[in-house]
């Protein structure tokens, strides 16, 4: 990817939270951005409006990342809107917090369909269509420390994403495509904050070396670097974007 070339960026699950922060940051970096969403059209359009009002280029495209046909259409609409895709950020995710005894098969399937199958299908399509020298960034999570009750399948899906990242980096390296993952820690998003008391949020904040929970922009800045020409020598890496959360 030439430093003077700004290819199209797709950010899955970018209607809110970390994904929206990444979409806004990549647009500020000059990339035309496809704001992908599954069902939150109004929020996705709001992200597009923010980007365009601040001088960027963006469109919202609905697609379910667990469906092959939807992913093919997502790439097609991205290419039609702005040209060849050079950056893919796999951010779409679903968290179901329940103890194992209460976790249903339907819950498990829903988490794995979005978090793991969705990333696999996006990686497969990117391997076929991404421009040489492109960038892929997968969004994992900081579960490498103490296990958190209620997040078993979610944590498993994120750890599996990291292995997909490492293998894809080796497979795509001959085309100078880098593949990395970021591990956000507790981050101020609707997904993380839902159902948590102020005391619990502060508990998570104290577990970070920097003494606070993250903001979507904190993660977006790391993704911005990995998507840039400056990160051409960084691939197959799992990078904590978590303020020293363990």
What does it look like?
The protein is an alpha/beta fold and 246 residues long. It has one domain (8-184, 216-241): 3-Layer(aba) Sandwich (Rossmann fold). Helices cover 45% and strands 15% of the residues. It is built from eight helices and seven strands, in the order βαβαβαβαβαβαααβ. A seven-stranded parallel sheet has the order 3-2-1-4-5-6-7, with helices on both faces. Helix 1 (17-28) runs parallel beside helix 2 and helix 4 runs parallel beside helix 5 (152-172). The termini are far apart. The mean pLDDT is 94.
Q: Write down the Rg.
A: 17 Å
Extended strand count: 7
Question: In the residues, how many domains can be counted?
Answer: 1
- State the shape: globular
Write the layout of secondary structure elements.
Elements: E1 8-11, H1 17-28, E2 33-37, H2 41-53, E3 58-62, H3 68-82, E4 85-90, H4 105-129, E5 135-139, H5 152-172, E6 178-184, H6 190-193, H7 198-206, H8 216-227, E7 238-241
Parallel strand pairs: 1-2, 1-4, 2-3, 4-5, 5-6, 6-7
Task: Give a quick precis of the structure.
The protein has 246 residues and is α/β, with parallel strands linked by helices.
Q: Can you tag this structure with a few keywords?
A:
Rossmann fold; 246 residues; single chain; alpha/beta; 8 helices
